[in-house]
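Re: that chain you flagged

S.,

Sorry for the slow reply, it's been a week of failed gels. I finally had a moment to sit down with the sequence you sent. For the record, here it is as I used it:
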Amino acid sequence: MEDILETLRGVLAERSRDLPDADFRLRGMWSVDYRAQPTDYERFMVYSFVLAQTVRQGCSYADFGSVPIGEASDGLIGKDARLVRGRSRAEDIAILDAAFGALPRTPTHVVTVDGSPEEKAVARARTVVDETMRLLRLSHGRKVAQIGVMGNLIHHLQREDVDITASDFDPHLIENGVLGVPVVPGDESARLVAESDVALVCGETLASHTLEGLLAAAAEHGTRLVIFAVTGCHFAQEYVTTFGIDTVIAEPQPQYLFQGTSILEIYRKDAG
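Prediction finished late last night. Pasting the structure tokens below so you have them in one place:
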């Protein structure tokens, strides 16, 4: 399968042709390292992400401490986000995501979540699992693979009548599992997708360059896909229309870790 980012760049060039160039000017970039545990069901999270800004913020998660924005990125500011490249895959994704943020989009449904990070973590997990269960009912199956483990999603899936498998690249999760669910190494993710009825995939698989393999496994074995995208949130509509992904839940900035209001945009391949 062609690199997803290259396909998206072609889509962006076509869809942005008649839009103002000023909307695509790269106005800012940030790198963030953080530690957090919004709920008891989530792991102690040690993460980094990159933000890039046009008229909206694009985002990509990365390995902790690997994405400082230094003087080497200064020359990108003010340039056309459709044309420039970052110094890493995370920067590339964030910049391209910010460019897509300037395009018009039409979600199937929008969910607004308010409150503390803990309250929003529960609301977003319930929304994502509800979308997963909707597809599972359509597939008449019970096997769900959770690719890129999120403890809150596992917790809510455990309330349903489903069989759960999980994969991640985090050695601690692989050794210890999460909430009693074993976790296999991330390089086994395509196998889990192939063996499941629905795969619930985190958007960070784009940053780890593993999403292409998961899409191929799903297409070959008839697995329905749900992507929960903080990384590459503005790609959601194209994930559905260009790549045929069944459902994408996008979480644009400001994400749930911050106080106040966050938005979840739901895109579905079917109209229901």
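What I noticed first: Helices lie at 4-15, 89-100, 117-139, 151-157, 171-176, 189-195, 211-221, 236-241.

Talk soon,
D.
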